[in-house]
Structures are given as C-alpha cells and as structure tokens.
Amino acid sequence: MTDSPNPYADTRGMYHVHALFRREFALLPEVVRGVAEGDKERAQVVADHFTLISLLLHLHHSGEDAELWPRLLTRAPKEVDPVIHLVEGHHAGIDALTSEIEVLLSAWRNSAGADDRDELADALQRLVGALYEHMGLEEKLVLPLIERHIFASEWEKMVADEAAQLPPGTGPVLVGMLMYEGGIDSVPPQIPAVLAEAAPQAYAAYAEKVHGTATPPRSAALVLGSPSISIQPA
Q1: DSSP character for 140?
Q2: pTM higher than the cut 0.90
Q3: How many CB atoms lie within 10 A of CB 102?
Q4: What gap in Å lies between CA 131 and CA 133, rounded to an integer?
Q5: Which residues pair with residue 115 across a beta bridge?
Q6: Are 16 and 178 in contact (CB under 8 A)?
Q7: What pLDDT score does 1 carry?
C-alpha cells in the first residue's frame, strides 16, 4: 500500500518569502538615513526599491485576504476565528502605514531633504515593527491552520495569481531576492530554470545598487533589538 499525496498546502515557501520581507524592509530605514541631503539621484534609487517591495507585499497580502482568510473562517474550528481576524487586522494596519509612507516617500523623492528623509525613516521603522509582529504570528499560528484546511491546488493558484501581477522585467531580481537566503529550494517549480540561473546575479547587482553591497545582511541577523534595526514604538 502506498501513501497518497498530501492534498493540503505545502507552506514551506512562505518562510522564504518572509525572510525576503524581513531583510529588505528591515534594512530600509538605515538605507534611507544614509542618503545625503540633496542627493536626488540616490533618493530615487531607494524610493524605487521601496515601491517594488511594497508592491510585492501588497500582492502577497491581497492574495491572502481573498483566498485564505475566508476559507479558514469557513473550514477551521471556530475557536481560531479570533486569530484569523487578528491577522486580517494586521493587514489593515500595514496598509495604513504603507499609505502614510507613500506620501512621505513622494515628498522625499522630490526634495531629498534631511527632514523629509528622517521622517520617512521613522515611519519605515514603524512598518518594520508591524511586519515582524504579523509574520511571527502568521508563522506560529496561521501556517499550521493552512496546512490542515487549504488545499494544495488553492495555495498554488494563489501563488501563481500573485506572480502574474508582478511588473514585467522584475522576475530575475525578485527571484534572486528569494534565492539569496533560500537557495534553489525556495524557487517555485513553475519558475523556468533559465530564470533561476540568472536570478542570483541579477539580485547581486541590484543589492549593490540599493544596499551598497552584493551581500546585505540576512534576515537571521536582523532580529528585533539587534544593532542593525532599532524598532520604534508605533
């Protein structure tokens, strides 16, 4: 007698996505603070980076809002409903913070002024704190629910739908962001092999431009309270 395939979602890829978000968002406040007053060219590079990763975050959360939370509220035991509503609320709070940051980002992109820069960096730190809280709770309490109540076909469709909405030409950099910590195991099976081969080099060049190094700190070094990130209270 052979075991039948597990019909439920394999959420291991979520940890790789979360590592990407922890790293790229946690590094941003100091990247912003490092831009010299009046350096509009550098401000543009950093602003574009935030725009890209915030779009990735928005697509990720939109997929969860549309595909995961309604199904979990229907299928999972009712006693976990407060957990689902809590992560839904996290998304709303993160969206509000992101909207605030986009206004600050626009002002700084145009001025490259020191005051605009510092206000933006402070708001980014608040966003990092909110993201760390959300992802930690999701990994601890929500992913086990997904593995028991969301079918693999539903999960894979959500991931594919998110990928289809990414801007053209960003694939190599974004796959490279994922592979930087997760390696080839982090690459979804539908990604062409040629893209996975080119991705690490694409991210290395991108990271050099944004972070000033092809090998920025990894998420394991970017824990709350570490020297690299000082999280401010909301």
Answers
A1: I
A2: yes
A3: 14
A4: 5
A5: none
A6: yes
A7: 40
* Cβ within 8 Å of residue 70, ≥6 positions away: none
User: 51 CB contacts (<8 Å, ≥6 apart)?
Assistant: 105
Take residue 233 and report the two structure tokens written for it: 């209270």
Long-range contacts (CB closer than 8 Å, 24 or more residues apart) made by 114-120:
114/37, 117/32, 117/33, 117/35, 117/37, 117/43, 118/33, 120/32
170 half-sphere exposure, CB direction, 13 A CA radius? 16
Please work out, in degrees rounded to the nearest 5, the angle formed at the alpha carbon of residue 217 by the alpha carbons of 187 and 143.
45
- Quote the CA–CA distance of 216 and 199 in Å, as a whole number: 16
Instruction: Give φ, ψ of 223 to 5 degrees.
Output: -90, 160
On whether the CB atoms of residues 28 and 190 are closer than 8 A, the answer is: no
Domains for the chain: give ranges and CATH numbers.
12-166 (1.20.120.520)
**What's the pLDDT score for residue 4?**
55
Confidence of residue 2 (pLDDT cuts 50, 70, 90): very low
